[in-house]
């Protein structure tokens, strides 16, 4: 009997460990240049990985040069893997909407074109519902003084961007673009979302 109980406890512990090991979800956001936005989400507690890439277009395995033409229909996006026990999808949406201008159609700052559009690619019906609810609330309260134009659509095939786009700010933080464009976004993140940041 003792042996059966020990085996039962071992199986339960293993199942619990496996369940906890698989407790990650994906979020995919497009909010302008992925160099600028990757560094923001990498700093959040509960985010286990961030990959820059392309989504929402018609071409299979597009290159950066092809996406930059605007002809493929892809947006520059981040595929975020996160632990919902540590950070919620709602929290990620809050960071998303407060870290770019969701009222400019196909433009973020100096970057213009459909590849820079504001977009949420949802992976579950719950993500769709939360994103739509949040967007509706922003428009109802006129939070930005202008209408939010963020597109909310079902996830499409995601294509990982070239290696030199990955972890861009962390590798190139001293470059003028990083200091002038990305660093102010990081500074804002540290002020607004201090409690959500990794130590």
UniProtKB/TrEMBL annotation:
Residues 26-178 form the Peptide methionine sulphoxide reductase MsrA domain. Its EC number is 1.8.4.11. The active site is at residue 33. Residues 1-19 form the signal peptide. It catalyses: [thioredoxin]-disulfide + L-methionine + H2O = L-methionine (S)-S-oxide + [thioredoxin]-dithiol; L-methionyl-[protein] + [thioredoxin]-disulfide + H2O = L-methionyl-(S)-S-oxide-[protein] + [thioredoxin]-dithiol. The keyword Acyltransferase does not apply. It comes from the Bacteria. It is an enzyme of class 1 (oxidoreductase). Keywords: Oxidoreductase, Signal. The keyword Oxidoreductase applies. Belongs to the MsrA Met sulfoxide reductase family. Has an important function as a repair enzyme for proteins that have been inactivated by oxidation. Catalyzes the reversible oxidation-reduction of methionine sulfoxide in proteins to methionine. NCBIfam families: msrA. PANTHER family: PEPTIDE METHIONINE SULFOXIDE REDUCTASE (PTHR43774), PEPTIDE METHIONINE SULFOXIDE REDUCTASE MSRA 2 (PTHR43774:SF1). This is Peptide methionine sulfoxide reductase MsrA. It comes from Pedobacter jeongneungensis. The lineage of its organism: Bacteria, Pseudomonadati, Bacteroidota, Sphingobacteriia, Sphingobacteriales.
């Amino acid at each position: 009997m003792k042996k059966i109980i020990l085996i039962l406890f071992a199986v339960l512990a293993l199942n619990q460990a496996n369940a906890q090991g698989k407790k990650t979800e994906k979020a995919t956001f497009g909010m302008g240049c992925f160099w600028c936005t990757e560094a923001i989400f990498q700093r959040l507690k509960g985010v286990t990985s961030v990959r820059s890439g392309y989504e929402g277009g018609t071409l299979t395995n597009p290159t950066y040069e092809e996406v930059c033409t605007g002809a493929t229909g892809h947006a520059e996006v981040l595929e975020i893997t996160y632990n919902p026990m540590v950070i919620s999808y709602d929290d990620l949406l809050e960071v998303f909407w407060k870290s770019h201008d969701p009222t400019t159609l196909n433009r973020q700052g100096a970057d213009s074109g459909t590849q820079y559009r504001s977009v949420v690619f949802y992976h579950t019906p719950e993500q769709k519902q939360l994103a739509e609810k949040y967007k509706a609330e922003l428009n109802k309260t006129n939070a930005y003084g202008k209408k939010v134009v963020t597109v909310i659509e079902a996830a499409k095939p995601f294509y990982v961007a070239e290696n030199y786009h990955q972890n861009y700010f962390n590798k190139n933080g001293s470059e003028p673009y990083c200091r002038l464009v990305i660093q102010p976004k990081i500074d804002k993140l540290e002020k607004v979302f201090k409690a959500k940041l990794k130590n």
